[in-house]
UniProtKB/TrEMBL annotation:
Domain of life: Eukaryota
Species of provenance: Caenorhabditis nigoni
Transmembrane segments: none
Segments forming domain F-box: 72-119, 373-416
Name of the protein in question: F-box domain-containing protein
Entry-linked InterPro entries: DUF38/FTH_CAE_spp, F-box_dom, FB224, Mos1_HTH
GO biological process terms held by the UniProt record: innate immune response
Length: 416
């Protein structure tokens, strides 16, 4: 009786497969329909594929004995060189799935360094978002357990959210030889640290780190290989926490970095700590008077220096912007302070720019005695015709909007 029931069930499964074939549904869609109808564990995909193609080619014997068939080839029968070639062309996320299949594939996958362009982690006490390059994984707390959404599936679990979160991150950081070009971590208020899942060290070229508690950041920073870590963007340190600032300056990661972006107030005396950097961004302490000429004299002594961005809030409106201008103009022959699009017209900007460029630093120079500047309307009419003739219709349309005289010159030529 049991044997008869098993045969009946077997024939029912094969009838389901045959029905998919007769509907001309592609095999992957067919297998998905099959699993939804009879369950995920009713038949493995290789067996489904065998019967699908038998029926597809008109071989309808449901009782065909497969014992006489040769053993099907698997991925493990593939030549090792071909397997390595395939692994080489997988992206890092695909390679992590491959290494989880068995020990042999794990060894092949681990023979190549896993290099991510971006790793982004955003975590709170009830939510986590993990981005690996262009693939996103999300885990959120539910009333009874949690829900995990991956690029491939959505899974509801009875597992505790915190345990699921740590398990997900552990599977990432236990990968051998992990490397990342840009690592970004944000731990929101109430989020526990992820220190326990970090490896002893991992290679990140650039890091952006934020947490309400800086004690969560330093263990993560220390796990990054000094020298490999070139750029550090710290968004966490409280503006007036000098102890945390000094603690950061003493890390090997900072001492061997090339670029830093810091969200705190520094004093001019701290500036020499940046002497090894190629670029840096930070904010000058607005509670103290700032010697901008001293800043100007210090920065050019930095051997690796390429650029910097220094901010100084003026909430108390206690100094004149010309103080900075006079100190820094000799140092910056090209460029200007950003004060808005309408602050000064270009001809006036050009006038002052070249005065300063040639060392004429009188900010109160009276321009009223200067000869009147020439304009486009002083150009000989033949030259103006020559210019307009070589403009395309769109450029000519813009030109004619300037004033009536130029409009007449532009209209002399056919616009379209």
């Amino acid at each position: 009786m049991e044997e008869s029931s098993a045969v009946t069930n077997d024939h029912h499964l094969k009838n389901c497969i045959l029905n998919e074939v007769l509907k001309k549904i592609p095999i992957f869609d067919s297998y998905r329909n099959f699993c939804e109808a009879v369950g995920q564990d009713a038949m493995d995909y290789p067996d489904f594929e065998f019967w699908y193609y038998r029926f597809y080619h008109g071989q309808m014997n449901f009782d065909y004995d497969r014992n006489m068939d040769p053993v099907p080839k698997t991925i493990m029968d593939m030549p090792i060189r071909l397997m390595q070639k395939i692994t080489e062309h997988l992206d890092p996320v695909e390679r992590t799935y491959l290494r989880s299949m068995n020990e042999s594939l794990k060894e092949v996958a681990d023979s190549y360094p896993i290099i991510f362009e971006n790793i982004l982690i955003r975590a709170s006490d009830d939510y986590m978002r993990l981005e690996l390059n262009d693939k996103m994984f999300r885990c959120s707390k539910e009333t009874n357990g949690c829900i995990l959404i991956t690029p491939f599936k959505e899974v509801k679990s009875q597992e505790n959210f915190m345990e699921k979160r740590l398990k997900t991150l552990t599977s990432l950081f236990k990968l051998p030889n992990i490397q990342v070009n840009h690592f970004s971590l944000t731990l929101f208020n109430g989020s526990p640290t992820i220190t326990e899942v970090l490896p002893g060290s991992f290679h990140a070229k650039s890091a952006e780190l934020y947490a309400f508690d800086m004690d969560h950041i330093f263990p993560i920073l220390s796990a990054m290989s000094p020298g490999v870590l070139e750029s550090i963007h710290l968004k966490s340190i409280p503006m007036d926490d000098s102890d945390q600032m000094l603690r950061f300056f003493e890390t090997e990661q900072f001492k061997q970095a090339k670029h830093v972006d810091l969200k705190w107030y520094y004093k001019v005396d701290d500036l020499m700590r940046f002497s090894h950097l190629k670029s840096f961004k930070c904010e000058v302490d607005f509670f103290e008077a700032v010697d901008f000429q001293r800043i100007r004299d210090i920065i050019p002594t930095f051997k690796q220096f390429e650029s910097c961005e220094l901010k100084r809030a003026n909430n108390r409106r206690d100094f004149d912007i010309r103080t900075i201008a006079l100190a820094l103009v000799p140092m910056i022959p090209f460029g200007f302070l950003e004060v808005g699009q309408d602050a000064m017209k270009y001809p006036d900007f050009e006038f002052w720019y070249y005065r300063f460029y040639h060392g004429e630093m009188d900010l109160d120079y009276d321009r009223s005695l200067d000869p009147e500047a020439k304009t486009i309307m002083d150009m000989p009419i033949r030259l103006m015709h020559k210019i307009v003739e070589n403009l395309d219709p769109v450029e000519r349309a813009y030109l004619r909007s300037m004033n009536k005289a130029i409009k007449e010159v532009a209209d002399f030529f056919t616009t379209f």
